[in-house]
Amino acid sequence: MTKLPETTTLIDEAALAAEMAAIADRATAAGADPRPELLAALKRANLEGRASARDILIRDRDGVACARRLSALVDALIHVIYEHTVTRVFPGGRDEKIAIVAVGGYGRATLAPSSDVDLLFLLPPKSQPLADKVLEHILYFLWDIGFKVGHSTRRVEDCIKLGRADMTIRTALLEARWILGDKALYAEMVTRFDNEVVKGTGPEFIQAKLAERDERHRRAGTSRYLVEPNVKDGKGGLRDLHTLFWIAKYFYRASTAEELVKQGVFSRKELTRFHKCEEFLWAVRCNLHFVTNRADDRLGFENQREIAELLGYQLHPGLEPVERFMKHYFLVAKDVGDLTRIFCAALEETHAKPKPMLDRVLHHTFRRRKKSLPGTPQFIIDNDRLSVTDDGVFERDPVNLLRIFAVAARNDLDFHPDALKLITRSLRLIDADLRDNEEANRIFLDVLTSKRHAEAVLRAMNETGVLGRFINEFGRVVAMMQFNMYHHYTVDEHTLRAIGLLAQIERGEEQGDHPLATELFPAIANRNVLYLALFLHDIAKGRVEDHSIAGAKIARRLGPRFGFTPAETDQLAWLVENHLVMSIIAQSRDLSDRQTIRDFAAVVQTVERLRMLLMLTVADIKAVGPGVWNGWKGQLLRTLYYETEPYLLGGHSKLSRDQRVAAAKAELAAELTDWSEAELSDYGRRHFAPYWLRVDLPEKVMHARLLKSMEGTGRRLATAYSTKKFEAITELVVVAPDHPRLLSTITGACAAAGVNIADAQIYTTTDGLALDTILINREFPEDADEFRRADRVLKMIEATLEGRERLPEIVARRVGQRKATKAFRVPTDIKFDNALSETLSVLEVSCLDRPGLLYDVTTALSDLNLNIASAHIATFGERVVDVFYITDLTKLKIQSGAKQAAIRRRILAAVTGEEPHPPKKAA
């Protein structure tokens, strides 16, 4: 299947053989063992050959040629070792009727730099006295050179029996390639394998290979758009091309891809795509092995930049070289998927004509049946899948390129491979006229807003190329990755997943995880606006302009195209422009601060916008990738919604501040039925007004009982914990004498214990105690395990507060010198804002995340004698945003520009680990 390039010889085989002979002669004359010197010569030849292969790859970037050169290098070394063995070590060995055969990937004459060398040692029926010794001698040389050799020693009869019984062995034998030895023995094995194993078993082999492919995709990640893909085993990777090779060779008896053109499986254009995919993927894989110096086929963040540089990608406005490289990677993976579909369509047609063999191949149980669809005479159902009546369907009416997807969504039908192939070959019909066609745009909106099948049908539309052609702006983000640890998928894949999640919320399937969004969805006045806003929310990624602002401009252009009124278009553009606002405020602002709610309400303005923004935010966050969404983020969004809705409805001013404080005290008193009036009165004076207004009732009850229990112990320190399973949060409560270093001590103990802090609330009592609530991300699913973890963390906090553990030492011991990965570059941004709160300054630190960062920053704030009222920690992959509400020791905001500059310098030093330098005085 591989196009055979010119292969540069990496080593001079004749010269190496002559050198080996000279070494052996010298050792014999001296009575010495020649093996160490022979091995050194072989290792040197191998290293020089590999170095040459890498140099040529960097120069010509031809991955297939590199893989063939490396395969030829191993061939040459085996030839030289064999000649030495049968000439010098076992002189009679040349007469042994044995054959050395390459199998597996090595059998295809393509070898990645760190791949295994798979060998079959083929023996005749009768035993040969020297055969085992010759083969063992060759193997030990290969192992000692450093190759990972997978080998088997078999007779032809064994190969046939095992080939029939084991599909993996059958596949390996399918790729068998003679290297040296008895060619007649090899030819006998190939002939018998074809006649006794392959013949008549095509459907069985195809079914096994396709099932194996599906399982491999499941293990590697079902999406081909994972941002750290597996180049070999991932969806759209080299193994998918290998699967085509195996099936083609087995069923079509094709030894090259060119033969598939002759048989009508691929067009000449598709063959060119095949070769381009193969060359690119091999270039990536070979470079990856050279860079990592191991057989690692996962294209991780830590290697993507270097490989992008090796492959020559350049900076483009809005896109880094690494992002351009990865976009190319995902477009190639998409092409591999297209070729697979085309190939399967040809297989189906070939099988279906003579007899219903395809039914066995693709798990169908009935004969091929075709039936018409009422109202759509241009489409038919073929074996329960949607297809076309003839190849001219799209030429006659290009709107059918949209209509077929609407029919699939409406009738819950999968697409027939023939239909998908014809769609892919008809993309040129999608032009400006079709994009402006009113019916085509109405059909697309119907597909997008389909309550049950939007994600699946849109994905098919994207895979075939229709989506990016019909909406040009979306075409720019197809296969676009964002080089960060936060986003797990490409922009287009993330968008389609978000649409699917929104549909699940609308269907009521997310009640458990998203109760508020599920409850509110029926109240959405215009669901079409919401769905299109979600579809467009990231459509301007990869541009120089902020993607939210640029996306809003695109929304204003597209709204009228899809039949939206001016008011609906304004709402659409607003949602796109502000799609990150709710998430940012919920995760990084103090939601108990009335100024936060006032500011957010001023942006949102209406309850309808608030509802729609909540839906969009939930779907957006959850579609980022596994593990990004958690219950705590959901709780923050619900809190922001519940605080903002009454404000928008005017309910915020019904009670005065004093009345609300009095109501909160009365609410607590109703829960503490075992307390006396005097105890309740005294306790009511222990807290300031913000505490009564901001803390939920269950926490107030726990705090009251914790403070009362502490009074009888004689200690000025108490701790408690509780878990919130739905929010995936564990709450740690620490009561201790108030002092500026309290929070830094607690965060340091948490860092030493290896926990991630999600949020922190700090309250001070009127009698000088600090009541700090630290929310940490839950680690264990079972409460008993999480309780033990929380107890361990609190014991660490108590030990540090009581001086039994020295914090710098334990943080250094537990955290060590681990730094954030060097793959990412996140600029440090430190901002002050005195308008976000009436009484507090807001300090926002955005930088590259690393272990112990929060401890270092809070320690710096303590060194500056600043009071921290609350801390809010949001992590976005490798980037962290820590927000602190602070005052000076006199409880006043930080207004002085000089003071703010000094704080920035000290925080910057804490983030980077460098000593702060005072500003230079002007001369």
From TrEMBL:
Free-text function comment from the UniProt entry? Modifies, by uridylylation and deuridylylation, the PII regulatory proteins (GlnB and homologs), in response to the nitrogen status of the cell that GlnD senses through the glutamine level. Under low glutamine levels, catalyzes the conversion of the PII proteins and UTP to PII-UMP and PPi, while under higher glutamine levels, GlnD hydrolyzes PII-UMP to PII and UMP (deuridylylation). Thus, controls uridylylation state and activity of the PII proteins, and plays an important role in the regulation of nitrogen metabolism.
Q: What gene makes this protein?
A: glnD
GO molecular function terms listed in the Swiss-Prot or TrEMBL record: [protein-PII] uridylyltransferase activity; phosphoric diester hydrolase activity
Question: What does its UniProt record remark on the domains?
Answer: Has four distinct domains: an N-terminal nucleotidyltransferase (NT) domain responsible for UTase activity, a central HD domain that encodes UR activity, and two C-terminal ACT domains that seem to have a role in glutamine sensing.
Tell me where in this chain the HD domain is found. 491-613
**Pfam families linked:** ACT, GlnD_UR_UTase, HD
Species, as recorded: Pleomorphomonas diazotrophica
User: Which protein are we looking at?
Assistant: Bifunctional uridylyltransferase/uridylyl-removing enzyme
Q: Which UniProt keywords apply?
A: Hydrolase, Magnesium, Multifunctional enzyme, Nucleotidyltransferase, Repeat, Transferase
